[in-house]
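Researcher: We're teaching a course module on how sequence relates to structure. For the next exercise, students receive a sequence and then see the predicted structure as tokens, so they can try to spot secondary structure elements on their own. Here is the exercise chain.
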Amino acid sequence: MKNHKLSQYLLKNLTIKDKILHNRLVLAPMAGLGHIALRQLISEFGGFGLLFTGMCSAKAIPSENSNVSPVFSWRPEELEYLVCQIFGSEPESMAKAAIRIEREGFFGVDLNFGCSVAAICKQGCGAALLKNPELSSSIVKSVRKSVSIPLFVKFRLGWDNNPQFAVDMARRFEDAGADALTFHPRIAPDRRTRPPLWDAITLVRQAVEIPVFGNGNLFVKEDAEKMMELTSCQGLSVGRMAVARPWLFSQWAKGFSPGKDIFYTTAMRMAQILLDHYTDYFSVKLFKKFSPYFCANFKFGHHILKKLNHAQTMDDIKNNLDLIFESDPETLSRPNLNLFL
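Model: And here is the predicted structure for the students to work with:
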């Protein structure tokens, strides 16, 4: 498939509830990475349909101060294409959070039933909810009754390698009122140790009438083309690779051709945007979360990562970037996944 075919697919209108997307390529809901600075950086390149926030606690949202919150914060101009991702384990608290999200003007709300991080699962949230299908359905129903904005659910294969379970859950979510699904076809204990089972995306897509966004190991446009052809999913959801290459939305959907200096200018721009939104101390922390994905683009990325991780201030980071790119580091067509967290 040629790139223009991929672009045609991505730029074909898609209806989610009563709203129309003009682009089927979206940022995946992620924890700790989908913050306001990354979203602004992606927005400056363009080429996406929707962006998702980082994981926000449903219990905290009703009283959260968006002016100081590190996760429940946004730029007013992004609300029209921004979906707020929430986690929780109680129908009532999830519904109350969704009410605040709708009131603020978000495009939609996303329920996280996919996060397999131990700290989240121990609270009975994220992928732990897949162990309790009845509770999962109740949460979706409660949120659906409380808001009219599009309702997304992100989930994964489950806790066992049983695609039929994912099919059954997809039907449950649809019956409970979900408007779209983001499906990551790995079991919860995997944590990316094995490749995603894309065939399961096909099964989920065939089981429901609502749009299904495929997610998992979308690194280069050939991966996007292959997922589209193999699964016929209605959209593509890109996570870690969007952190490594924030311009990929524009590249895949609009034919953007990055120049030789794209890595340097992108890293420096990320540093500046972080400082525009956060303190120097917190900006350093967030840049160091960004760094492993960024450094995965380079042949000797682990050496570059060490240099960036030695920084104590944002000035250190900028100076280190200047020094790193003086030597014109060799880039990779596919990222070094050993650096992806």
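Model: If you want an answer key for the exercise: The longest strand covers residues 151-158. The mean pLDDT is 96.
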